[in-house]
Design goal:
single chain; mainly alpha; 15 helices; elongated; 2 domains
Length: 364
């Protein structure tokens, strides 16, 4: 399909019938049955037909193989942990946990918490909010604060009306049922979980803790916002550069394999998946950084365009692979497109300091 899009050729109507039947079989968990006669008038159509037949056969046998496996060396895993992304995340977690634990202990010993002993709520909330997979920093902090305040106020009102302990037990059950629905928005999920936790605390015989929960959450939110915008050693935007570097290296490896003339199809498919997967991860990191407040968002400038160029390079590499399988050589449009993308990446390099993929020499 990628090669078809790259070739910019009209697709016969019957060529789309096979994907529809396969999609219907997957949706209904039924056998694919006979597929329409293939339209094999172009290399990309022949590759599409072969892929559909292989997919239909694998689906009917319920044997997809290790399609989603990701082979990563130990060195690659170490680089992920100790690289720019791992160092930045670890540093911010350590700062948030250390500062929040110190504040919580100080408040606990001064009896600011009153009678309840849950001093660990503050550091636990701070560490949880540092997690980057919860969305942009400002968004997740504001959602957590709003959800906690709403949930605590709601619980305070319900606790004054419900009988104990029967009403609290019913409230816990209701919140448990609402959690799957509330996951659609972080603030809603936080509100439901806050009511659930406070109900469990009171059902266990402890006093009302709504005020303390609100104060601790607001303290944690403020701390995470401050730490999240602190300048750390090294250039800002290292996480995005690291993602783009990984995507560039994966694209380079895939391109080298295709233009190197290897007949190992399984290795090529694995490299293609890795190239697209690293590009998707880079896109996610760029989108996340772009949604941050301006002091953080500006470090993503130019990165999205570079990722788009790398995507076009991987698409072109896939088209080259299909053409090489069919004819054994590259024609001038493929070579010209590879050259254009190489030059475009070279022009973008100063903006993100990206190591350019080295294009092997091609002739024709």
């Amino acid at each position: 399909a990628t090669a078809l899009a790259w070739a910019e050729q009209a697709v016969p109507a019957r060529a789309s019938e096979g994907p529809r039947r396969l999609a219907a079989a997957v949706r209904d968990n039924a056998s694919t049955g006979p597929l329409p006669a293939p339209a094999r008038s172009a290399p990309a159509l022949r590759a599409l037909d072969d892929a559909l037949l292989n997919a239909a056969e694998a689906f009917d046998r319920a044997d997809g193989g290790d399609l989603h496996g990701r082979r990563r060396s130990r060195a690659a895993r170490v680089r992920t942990v100790l690289g720019a992304r791992g160092r930045e995340y670890g540093t911010r977690v350590a700062l948030c946990f250390g500062a929040s634990a110190a504040i919580a202990q100080a408040l606990h010993h001064t009896r600011w918490y009153g009678q309840h002993e849950h001093w660990y709520w503050l550091p636990a909330t701070a560490v949880f909010l540092v997690k980057p997979d919860l969305g942009p920093l400002a968004s997740r902090v504001l959602s957590r604060a709003a959800g906690t305040v709403l949930g605590a106020l709601l619980f305070a009102g319900l606790a004054a009306l419900l009988p104990r302990p029967e009403g609290l037990v019913a409230l816990v059950a209701a919140c448990g049922a609402l959690i799957p629905v509330a996951t659609r928005h972080f603030a809603a999920q936080t509100a439901v979980v806050t009511v659930l936790v406070l109900a469990l605390v009171m059902a266990g015989g402890e006093p009302q803790a709504s005020v303390g929960r609100i104060a601790e959450t607001l303290l944690a939110c403020g701390l995470v916002l401050v730490v999240g915008h602190l300048p750390l050693p090294g250039p800002r935007g290292d996480a995005i550069r690291a993602r783009l570097t990984e995507a560039g290296a994966a694209a380079q490896t895939y391109l080298d394999h295709v233009l190197g003339g290897s007949d190992d199809r399984a290795a090529r498919w694995a490299l293609r998946r890795e190239a697209y997967r690293t590009l998707a991860e880079a896109r996610t990191a760029i989108a996340l950084a772009s949604a941050e407040l301006p002091p953080l968002a500006r470090h993503a400038d130019g990165a999205d365009e570079t990722a788009a160029t790398l995507e076009r390079l991987v698409d072109t590499t896939t088209a080259c692979a299909v053409h090489l399988d069919d004819t054994g050589r590259l024609d001038s449009p493929h070579i010209r497109r590879l050259t254009e993308l190489r030059d475009e990446l070279a022009r973008r390099r100063p903006r993100v300091d990206l190591r350019l993929p080295r294009l092997p020499a091609v002739t024709g």
